Structure formats: C-alpha cells, structure tokens
Amino acid sequence: MLRQALLAASRSGGARRVVETAPFTRDVVRRFIAGETIEDAARVTEELTTEGLLVTLDVLGEDTTDRERAEANVQHYIDLLRRLGDTRLEGAPLGTRAEVSLKLSAIGQTVDEALALDNARRVSTAARSAGTTVTLDMEDHTTVDSTLRTVHELRRDFPDTGAVVQAYLRRAEEHCAELAYEGSRVRLCKGAYAAPEPIAFTGKEDIDKSFVRCMKVLMAGKGYPMLATHDPRLIDIAGALAVLHGRDADTFEYQMLYGVRPQEQRRLAGQGAVVRVYVAYGREWYAYFMRRLAERPANLRLVMRSVTGR
Ligand code: FAD
C-alpha cells in the first residue's frame, strides 16, 4: 500500500511541490543523490573509484515531453562524458572506471522513438570518445518494448550498449534468454515502477523468484550479467551461480545504488568482485528520490525524523 502510494506520489505534481520545498529535504536527499552539477558527479566518482568501485552516472531528469528539454539533457550527457574523458585518475581517464546510465524518456522517447534513438546515438558516440559505455535504464512498463527496440538498434553500431531487464515483469525470463549472448551487457534489477498484475508480479516473493530464474539464465549464458540488487539472499545466490558456471570475477558485476548498503559494496569489492555504484545527480531528483523511499519504509522514517527533529 505504502509503496504504491509513494510510487503514485513520484508522478504527482502536488506531492512534488510539497516534498521539494520542505525544509528537511536537503539532508535526506543528499544520502541518495550525489549533488546537482558535473563537478559533484566527478568528485563522487573519484572518491568511489579510488576505493576500488566502478560507477555508472545518471543525470536526473525523466518524462521529458518537449524537444528543447530533451536536447538540453543530451548536451548535459555529452558535457559529462567529455569531463570523464578529460579527467585523469592515476594516469587513466575517469571514463575507464565510470560509464553512464541513460533514460530514454529524458531524451525524447515520449515525443518520438526515432528522436530518442538519434539522441542515444549521440550520447553513445560521446561515450566511445571518453573510453566508456552507455546503459539504457528500463522505465515504466509501457515503454519496455520501445526501449528494447532501441537497445537492439543501438547495438548495431555500439555493441557494448547495456540493456536492463526488470525481474518483476512476467516476460523477464524471456527478455533474459534473448539477451544472454556473447558480448551482451545486461543489468538485472527487480523493477522500481508500479505495473498491473497481468503484466508484472506484484508480491515480493514472486519477484524474488523471478529474479533468481533470470539470474540463472544470464549466469549460464554467454553475456556479461550486471546484477543490480541490495538483497543479501540474491547476492549469495549470485555468488553460488558464479561458482556453478565457473565464471571468473571479471565476467559479471554487482551493481548497487549510491547511498544504499555502502559497506556491502566495499565488502564485495574487497573480496575481488567487480562492483559498480549507480550515482544519480542533478536538479531533477524528485521522482528518483520517491522511488528510493518506496523501496524501503525505513527511509521514510528517516524523512519523518528530519521533519519532526526527533
Ligand atoms: P529490495 O527487496 O527492495 O531490497 C532488499 C534489501 O536491500 C532491503 O531489505 C534493504 O536492506 C536494502 N535496500 C533496498 N533498497 C533500499 C533503499 N532504497 N534504501 C536502503 N536500503 C535499501 N529499476 C528499474 O526499474 N530500472 C532500472 O533501470 C534500474 N536500474 C537500477 C540500477 C541499479 C544499479 C540498482 C541497484 C537498481 C536499479 N533499479 C532499477 C532499481 C531496482 O529495480 C529496485 O527497485 C531496487 O534496486 C531495490 O531492489 P533490491 O533488489 O535492492 O531489493
């Protein structure tokens, strides 16, 4: 119930105004969001990569309905990627340790799929120049087919484009089977949006079981699985599947969100696993922040404590 309410609020203009202007917001938001500027993103990326973690950077801003806004978002990504290519850390460009995550809805998908594809090509070209890659985030269930089509198109010229499968979709296993081929980078996550029962599993247990089935397909396949979860049980199962399939540590990676289970991120990296942190930054933090609250009621208590001062 609470999760559904928070997800509904993530798309409500009224709730947005209340949350954005509330005095508590800044401190709590800072736990999950790296800051507002490219400088903030570069600083956090340097900190994390110095600790042996990899990064994927997300410029906040989604559901863009006009071309000018989409163009501004594309330009921001290009500027960010230039910065990743130009900044050197221990002799290597930051781009060798940080890629970008891109939401097609931020670069024109809602206006026209072809515009989003063109824009994604421009961002991918900038990523290639910076020595890095792009992963296309998966969003609301109504956009999944369009996003998968765009992934397949982009991969003709940029085979290293990352795809995302959301385990909560009933078709998730099918998506994994289609994507588990040589060289295919696939992020598996549970899914952060609300979707109706005929399309998605809605109970935690069913979603977790689907995640395990998907992991089995990806880990047995020839691609490069990127297992995006903080769930301790699923992380253990991932480790067991890696052993079962004789996968070396550098043939798959764990991914977690900035601000969520940071000790676990470092523990896994300390054991030799590849761990990538999803770092979101920018001024348009509202929808992203609300999805993080929806994932964990304890985070909502954090907000309430900062409101009441207790
Ligand atoms: P959960 O069952 O939600 O959580 C398991 C445990 O993890 C919890 O018990 C808690 O201990 C901890 N935890 C989880 N979330 C939080 C939190 N917010 N704060 C504190 N502790 C927490 N979703 C999409 O729909 N599309 C995407 O493209 C996408 N990309 C992602 C990329 C990355 C790198 C990650 C990590 C997630 C991504 N997600 C995406 C979000 C994902 O779908 C889930 O909503 C989110 O990861 C929570 O699921 P979980 O697997 O951690 O399991």
What is the subunit arrangement here?
single chain
Q: What molecules are bound to this protein?
A: flavin-adenine dinucleotide
> Within the largest sheet, what's the order of strands?
5-4-1-10-9-8-7-6
CATH topology annotation of the largest domain: TIM Barrel
Mean pLDDT: 91
Count of beta strands: 10
Coarse morphology: globular
Largest sheet: 8 strands, parallel
Estimate nothing, just give the exact number of structural domains.
Answer: 2
Judged by helices, strands and strand pairing, the structural class is: alpha/beta
The CATH architecture of the largest domain can be named as: Alpha-Beta Barrel
Rg, Cα atoms, Å: 18 Å
Q: β content, as a range?
A: 5-15%
**CATH class placement of the largest domain:** Alpha Beta
Order of helices and strands: HHHHEHEEEHEHEHEHEHEHEHH
**Percent helix range:** 40-55%
Low-confidence stretches: none
Terminal CA distance? 25 Å
Tally of helical runs: 13
Please provide a written account of the structure.
By secondary structure, the protein is of the alpha/beta class. It has two domains: 1-33 and 285-310, no CATH class; 49-282, TIM Barrel (Alpha-Beta Barrel), CATH 3.20.20.220. It is 51% helix and 14% strand. It has 13 helices and ten strands. The strands form two sheets. The chain has an eight-stranded parallel sheet with strand order 5-4-1-10-9-8-7-6. The chain has a two-stranded antiparallel sheet with strand order 2-3. α6 links the parallel β4 (98-102) and β5. Bound molecules: flavin-adenine dinucleotide (FAD). Flavin-adenine dinucleotide is lined by residues 137-138, 164, 166, 187, 189-193, 228-231, 255-257, 260-261, 278, 292, 295-296, 299.
